[in-house]
From TrEMBL:
The keyword Cell inner membrane does not apply. It is found in: Cell membrane. This is Integral membrane protein. It comes from the Bacteria. It comes from Kitasatospora cinereorecta. InterPro entries: Poly_Biosynth_Transport. The keyword Cell inner membrane does not apply.
Length: 432
């Protein structure tokens, strides 16, 4: 065998090994999100079947509030970690994770206290749910931080096991909550099982979160963290504003109908979110190893998700009413009417996710922030404008149109960012 042939064989073997490693990391991302989404699906179905559409709407308001707080934590704590500490030496990773998870825990403590006070002040049906959410937020945010920490190290199996622990702990908690029969009980059951998984994450990693390191972490990562904070909060805040506005315009039951339709799309959304756990680290690896392939990687990622969303939504259309009512109870009738617009919206979001991963990998926080602010404004405007014109269905169609339009903006910004990077490449990965 000639030296040239030997080198070619080594290159082929190396490429094959890299592809297998990529498939393995993506597979663990999907498995992890499947476990996480199954837990969320069980909670949603339990509340919908046990308490009815109005109580399910109250639970959904608490859920979207949790989503806002979660995105605050991700923007400040774990998004910079994933961008700058994916694939770095272990010593650097462990130090960064200790400070990142400490930041997440601190965010949960501060915003949890705010949520608790707001809930106690509100009273009525909504207040107790928000108060219980406030108590549970530190553990919930820490558990999410462990997931992203593990994926930044390429250890998706540990994230999967952690979410599996949450799912196992959730079973007896849901049984108790169903016997109590209140929204607050379900929030406590969901949060307590998540806190148990957060504690287990400390054992898995051998790392103790350092809340005292939060200030230093925020200072070091401020160039990305604060932009990601605004970007993430605008995303989840838009969802919250749409939910509150829809409740005010069409009633709390309309919020429950939208959440019910989202549950029907749950298995695909699990795939979408599972991929999102690993797309930024993988895009960062592609950028370091083969920067000329980043655009095609993002296009394949986004296009694949959009096609998969359309296929899943099409499969839901012929579901008989009897089966739908078996799953969602009284929520089915109103939720089933929203399948088509929600499917189109998710397809648009999936397409845009590919471009968003590329912008994150490039560290183009200013561009991604610009895109997200535009997308959030369209989301709120389309959702509430549609609700004012045609109720719940109008809101769903307005969101679908806004999401598809926003996807085009994400791709235009990625194209510009790639052009700038090719002219003046700036590495974003840190090792200290």
């Amino acid at each position: 065998m000639t030296p040239m042939t030997t080198e070619a064989a080594k290159a082929t073997a190396s490429a094959g090994s890299a592809k297998r490693a990529l498939v393995g990391r993506l597979s663990w991302g999907l498995a992890d999100q499947a476990a996480s989404s199954m837990s969320n699906f069980v909670v949603g179905i339990s509340v919908a079947r046990s308490l009815g559409v109005t109580a399910f709407g109250v639970f959904s308001l608490a859920w979207v509030t949790y989503g806002v707080v979660l995105n605050v934590s991700r923007g400040l704590a774990t998004d910079p970690l994933v961008v700058r500490f994916s694939g770095v030496p272990e010593a650097s990773w462990r130090g960064a994770v200790a400070r990142s998870t400490g930041t997440a825990l601190g965010v949960g403590a501060v915003l949890g206290a705010v949520c608790l006070l707001v809930g106690l002040g509100l009273g009525g049906r909504v207040g107790p749910a928000f108060a219980c959410l406030g108590v549970m937020l530190p553990g919930l945010l820490l558990q999410d931080a462990w997931r992203f920490s593990f994926f930044s190290a390429g250890a998706g199996r540990k994230a999967f096991v952690n979410d599996l622990v949450w799912g196992v702990a959730l079973v007896p908690a849901m049984v108790v909550a169903a016997r109590v029969g209140s929204v607050a009980a379900f929030v406590l059951a969901w949060g307590a099982s998540g806190a148990a998984a957060a504690a287990y994450g400390c054992l898995q990693s051998g790392i103790r979160p350092r809340m005292t390191g939060a200030r230093g972490w925020l200072r070091e990562q401020r160039d990305l963290g604060y932009r990601y904070l605004v970007e993430n909060v605008s995303l989840s805040g838009a969802s919250q504003l749409r939910a509150y506005g829809l409740g005010a315009i069409a009633g709390v039951g309309a919020v429950g109908a939208v959440r019910g339709a989202e549950l029907l799309l749950g298995p695909f959304l699990a795939v979408l979110m599972g991929l999102s756990l690993v797309t930024v680290p993988e895009a960062a690896r592609v950028l370091r190893q083969a920067p000329h392939r980043l655009g095609s990687f993002c296009l394949l990622l986004g296009g694949g998700q959009a096609v998969a969303a359309l296929l899943w939504g099409g499969a839901l259309l012929p579901v008989p009413n009897r089966l739908g009512e078996l799953v969602l109870g009284d929520v089915w009738q109103s939720a089933s009417q929203l399948i088509v617009p929600l499917t189109l919206g998710v397809a648009g979001a999936g397409l845009g996710t590919g471009a968003a991963a590329g912008l994150r990998a490039l560290g183009a926080a200013r561009r991604s922030l610009r895109c997200q602010l535009f997308a959030s404004a369209c989301y709120v405007g389309g959702g509430l404008g549609g609700a004012a014109v045609a109720g719940t269905a109008g809101s769903a169609w307005g969101v679908a149109a806004a999401t598809v339009s926003s996807s085009a903006v994400w791709w235009l910004q990625l194209r510009s960012a790639l052009r700038e990077h090719n002219q003046n490449p700036i590495p974003e990965v840190r090792t200290s």
